[in-house]
Design brief:
By secondary structure, the chain is an alpha+beta fold. The protein is about 35% helix and about 20% strand.
Amino acid sequence: MTAAYGDTALAARLKDLLGRRHPVAAAAVVTPAGTTTASIGADLAADFEIGSISKGVTGLLYAEALNRGEVEESTTLADLLPLGNVSAGGVSLRALSTHRSGLPSLPRSAAPLRRTVALWRSGVNPYGETLAELLDQARGVRLARPVPRYSNFGFELLGHALSAATGTTFSDLVYRRVAEPLGVSTLYAPANADELLPTALSGSNRAGKQREPWTGEALAPAGGLRASITDMARLTGALLDGTAPGIAALDPIAPFGRKARIGAAWVTLESAGREITWHNGGTGGFRSWLGLDRQAGTGVVLLTAISASVDRHGFTLLTDVTENGG
């Protein structure tokens, strides 16, 4: 029998919700009455790759930098990073934060197809660039029309531009402005496997084959953060009560797709008659989902150490929590 930790009822619900496909997973439920966490297959201190929820954290850092007057919406990449007179240098931080930069998801120079094939075949980390390598890629990229287009590359550059604006590294910026103030000690950005904490889980694909950890200095702002379910619960609580830094990132400012709107990374849409603000994440061996019903003051986080989506399960659990109190 798979070991369970934390709240017994939530652990049972997690097993029922995700089924046998997710042998290592964790959940957090935040309501006005309090916070509940549970995990199966690993204890509550274990840290998962949170994938593109990292973009949500970067969005918070962007909104906080705006609030502090360190950057403006019109500040460009070239204002902060040593890009020279290239097309990408003229992209504004606002455009990056709402996926309207005209930048591709990944540049051609990164050979995304080759990397994807290598991930499928042998589970290798398709990222791992240094910041210097990321900037070299940016100098050679061509911009498309600035229409809504999800871009990992854009958020990598946004995070490192914010770091440059504050005179630090992205990893340190996350620590100083999010992790330390909120007391979330396992929210971190490993540049390589040697920087993984002892609590770091290994992820697997749907067939159960282990995948390399997605680490990398360049990747961190777009998909390289890790955290435990306990710390993700604390972050969710701070998003709901407004004490998280850069809370304005949650407020939608532009359309994103047919029925959604976007703030700084965070997407807002209607689900089951409720307005939900959310972000998900996926890496070679992990999936994640964080959703908020801000009006009801409820939130849900799901983390799993296998590359099978938990989006549907997250929306279902959040609806149940909001409507039924659990």
